[in-house]
Amino acid sequence: MKIKGLSVTLLLIVSALSLKGQVKISEQEWVLPTYKVAPPDKNPMFFNGESYQGASKYIYPYGMNDVISDQKVDKAWKAVTMENEYIKLCVTPEIGGKLYYATDKSNGYNFIYKNNVVKPSNIGMLGAWVSGGIEWCVLHHHRASTFLTVDYTTTENSDGSKTIRIGETEPRHRMRWTIGITMFPDRSYFEAEVKILNPTPFTHTFLYWANAAAHTNENYQVIFPPSVNIATYHAKNSFTNWPFSTEVYNGQDFTKGVDVSWWKNSPNSNSFFAWDLKEDFMGGYDHGRETGTVHIGDHNVVKGAKLWEWGSGPAGQATESRLTETDGPYVEIMTGAFSDNQPDYSWIRPYEVKTFRQYWYPVKDIGGFKNANLNGAVNLEQKENNQVFLGYYSTKKIEKAVILLKNKGKVVLNEEVEISPSKTFTRTIRIGSPFGLTDLYTEMKDNATGEVLVSYTPVKTEKAPELPPSVSRPKDPKDIPAVEELFLTGSRIEQFYNPTLNAMDYYLEALKRDPDDIRTNTAVGNHYLKNGDYLKARSYFARAVKRLTKDYTRPSTCEALYLQGITLKSLGLYEEAEDTLYRATWDYAWHSASYLELARISCLKGDLQKALEQIDESLSTNSRNNSAVCIKSSVLRHLGKAKEALELIKGFAEKDPLDFRSGNEFYLNLKAFGEEKAAETALEDLNREMRDFDQNYLELGITYLNDGFVDDAADVFSRFTGKNPIVNYYLGYISDIKGNKEEAARYFKNGSGLPVDYVFPFRLETVDVLKKVADYFPDDARPWYYLG
């Protein structure tokens, strides 16, 4: 085994030398021993009140894939690898876009856990889930598509870096997310740029956590920043001191005082979320192998840091043995953005785009770390006999780095060294006289530029004087005294997808006491609007608007007006919708979304010039809105301004290559501008990235249909080469709009002749399409079956 390990390390070193100053990216088939998962259940699975990871377990429109074989086969998986001189990583698009492993090439250590067998277990929302790597938990924890194929592409950047992008449109909310994993020349870290887009007219809530796994053993310690002295459990229903727990925490007795940062000290499964994170780093360190993992992220946004472990005892190890064969136990050193707990969902408004960045890199030889940033990590520890240990790791090569150590302002060490990801700095230094650790200061500086790369001043850590109060279950609606509290309780239930409580119970109790309460009527109306019950929604919004505008008042918040405008638009009452939406534009918070909906109405009415003006107004207060930019491109193209449209969309499509609307606009604008060869190449790229996945074509085509561009929609649907009856139905629906009844009937009939397996309609727009099929063929059971 030692010879084999040495050979692997030598190969990595040779590879590193050949990649000096560059990044290599490649795609290949990777054969892995795999326990196969049976095809998903053909039957639709509706919500039955179950909980998953503390939230409601909504399966539909996915299929359950919880039948896993105990037979192992060799299976070829698509693998996209990327490496530079210092690190190598692999992404598997067919396994949920998981970053399957990341390796430090200087020592062969997988600083992101590598599982050498695909061994699913029924842990995921839909069933199959595999351990290891970094699982991207976007919108929900252990998201539904964690073991499904996602969209992906690769790009080369002008600075020499290269990017693997993964993403999808999540069907239950129709929100889209992308993650761009970028590696840079001459750096030992990789970046994940996360983009979460809400291209819908509705407000939603979402959760984001990067579930990074690391190899663990009795020498492994999870490292939160020194200022973290409290940890909490899921839903914040239990708290403990960190790292020395002295409490009964989640059923485990630590009252004798246990350092729970060490994996070996938690015999049973447990979660520890850092409470009130104030620094930008966290990670873990194997003190036996002298190597570990560092995560960097702006703690103002990347607010969550978590340790999850199955436990070092027999039960935990038995569970882990079901997830791997030879790669051993792991811990999850997780990080969350816009969230510090699970479940802990944040709001995202209509057409809002949220972006942030995270970074990971290996660390070695320095005994852990007390501070870290993108430049490197530092460790400083007090030893016996007035000595300290000082260690630095750098994420890039610094030929003349100056290592400084001071005691009460006096220089103890000032040494110029060469440091790199392959060559760390470590010293054991005698101070000479008794000292306090908090009297010390150390820094690493680049002597060539004068920049202080990373520094550390020890601070005194103290046990928290008291632990925060735990979250408790809300009272029954009748026992809550205030209408405001009833509304807030219902809102929180919706926000967190609470599976055991019904928000409507609290809302209706509030309306029982105050039938015209603005916030509660708006919330109830929004519930019915999202479910397509437009008449009920309209009545609740009308009540909210009536109180809002009492005595001819211009309201300071116009959410109810905006939502009423959406409702009227959905009912086809365009003039009333326009009047209401224009009133909503007077509120900055709803200005952009309202103008975008007004532009859509203008497109549907054929007034493209007016639509263009409204889109520009929308973009003036939300320039990152992909939907608005893409509609503007379509409008310009239909106005005969293909060159202007091409200039608008080109850069946008390059920045977000998995936005299929912008990619399709790029193709159509090239074609309209007469660039036939370039258009053909753009279409080939688009078709490859859309991977002939039916839901990608449906989502793209429906966006054009919603904007009134029926020919563009038909073109998209016609390019789908697979078989899905809903695609046929949409083509028939478009033919009916254009007055071609015979062609519509043919499409409808062909659609009803296709199998019903895995056809789970979920978009509100499809309701009208299915009703149209039923109008043509009243005795056809298929449209009624799909309507449910």
What keywords describe this structure?
788 residues; alpha+beta; Beta-galactosidase, Chain A, domain 5; Immunoglobulin-like; Serine Threonine Protein Phosphatase 5, Tetratricopeptide repeat; 8-stranded antiparallel sheet; 37 strands; 32% helix; 29% strand; globular; disordered N terminus
What does this structure look like?
There is one protein chain. By secondary structure, the protein is an alpha+beta fold. Among the domains are: 2-364, Beta-galactosidase, Chain A, domain 5 (Distorted Sandwich); 374-456, Uncharacterised protein PF16024, DUF4785 (Immunoglobulin-like, Sandwich); 691-788, Serine Threonine Protein Phosphatase 5, Tetratricopeptide repeat. Strands 10, 15, 17, 18, 23, 26, 27 and 28 form an eight-stranded antiparallel beta sheet that branches. Strands 11-12-13-14-29-25-24-16 form an eight-stranded antiparallel beta sheet, with no helix packed on it. Strands 1-4-5-6-7 form a five-stranded antiparallel beta sheet, with no helix packed on it. 47% of the residues are buried.
